[in-house]
Amino acid sequence: MNKRKVLITGADGQLGRAVRERFADDELICTDVGDINITILHRVQEFVQKYEPDAIINCAAYNDVDGAELKKELAYAVNCIGPRNLAMAANSVKAKLVHISTDYVFDGKRPITDIYEENDDKNPQSVYGCTKYNGENEIKRYITTYYIFRTAWLFGDGNNFVRKIMELGKKQDEVKVVYDQYGSPTYANDLADIIYQALEKKIPMGTYHATNLGFTNWYDFTKEIFKQAGIQCRVIPVTSEELPRAAARPKNSMLAKGKILGEDIEIASWEDALARYLEKEKNKI
Ligand SMILES: NC(=O)c1ccc[n+]([C@@H]2O[C@H](COP(=O)([O-])OP(=O)(O)OC[C@H]3O[C@@H](n4cnc5c(N)ncnc54)[C@H](O)[C@@H]3O)[C@@H](O)[C@H]2O)c1
After folding, report:
1. In the chain, what's the furthest Cα-to-Cα distance?
2. CA distance 131 to 137
3. 110: Cβ contacts below 8 Å, ≥ 6 apart
4. Per the residue annotation, which of 62, 116, 128, 142 is the catalytic one?
């Protein structure tokens, strides 16, 4: 296999670590904010001109959904200006750009019998969602050789719901979890593998929904986590209104995967992904 030269930004994050692992046989240039702050155009250009990668995988993001409501400028810089800078730089060396977006670009107001296709109307309801949606648009303005993978409910080697709820489940007799928000939990390693398959198979450039298969809600997800991890803790179902957050959460985050599956990309179910995650992380959690 010919080694690709791959520049990873945000390489120390949850997805960044998984991408490093999946692309280990390629020539990797791993960077995080200390090496390339993606919000600073000349830093991005310097690195990209120096290494001339075949592909840039942008795993960097401002991901604190509630924090973004207050830190609007920072969220905008990282989630919108950053991707724009990367798109301009990637285009200048004819590199492919892989970028990650989110279910939060939709308003999530559809009935849960209805799932979101890639081209459905966007209507983000939070600052985070707006910045990610603007980031997608900036990429489309500055480069044609891009993949945008919209993912959701990500868990991997980092701070995530699975770790947090397991910590609570081990300490408490019961936890309250919302049952009225639906989506697809996604293992960072599986998303890294989707990215890998897309580049290997050279699927058509564009935007794809990329999560593990199957849908659930946070309450049932928690019950499955506790079941698989053998944690004895009662799970109390509550509504979103009973557990208010600073930023609005979409109730329907269900992303249709027909487009990516139509390109022969293999994706596991979220339950299978969770089992592999728990096995891999069993000494850490
Ligand atoms: N975590 C989720 O549940 C979730 C859901 C949907 C979509 N996503 C998207 O998936 C992608 C990966 O998310 P994650 O959970 O791995 O994120 P993460 O927060 O674990 O990692 C983000 C990384 O970006 C780096 N970073 C922050 N600002 C930077 C800057 N200015 N320049 C360079 N690096 C910077 C951080 O240091 C960190 O290492 C993001 O695009 C995110 O928006 C995540």
Report:
1. 56
2. 10
3. 116, 252
4. 128
Measured CA to CA, the distance from residue 79 to residue 222 in angstroms comes to: 29
pTM: 0.97
Helix, strand and coil content of the chain, in percent to the nearest 5, comes to: 40, 20, 40
58 and 86 in contact (C-beta within 8 Å)? yes
Has 128 been annotated as catalytic?
yes
Identify the structural domains of the chain with CATH numbers, from first to last: 5-160+183-214+254-268 (3.40.50.720)
- C-alpha 233 to ligand 1 mean position (Å): 30
For residue 125, give the nearest of 245, 255, 248 by alpha carbon. Answer: 248
Q: Can you tell me whether residue 5 is helix, strand or coil? A: strand
For 259-277, how does the pLDDT look when each residue is reduced to its tens digit (9 = 90+)?
Answer: 999 999 999 999 999 999 9
- Which of 80, 101, 104, 154 to probe ligand 1 with, by most ligand atoms within 8 A of CB? 154
> How does pLDDT run across 110-155, given as a tens digit for each residue?
999 999 999 999 999 999 999 999 999 999 999 999 999 999 999 9
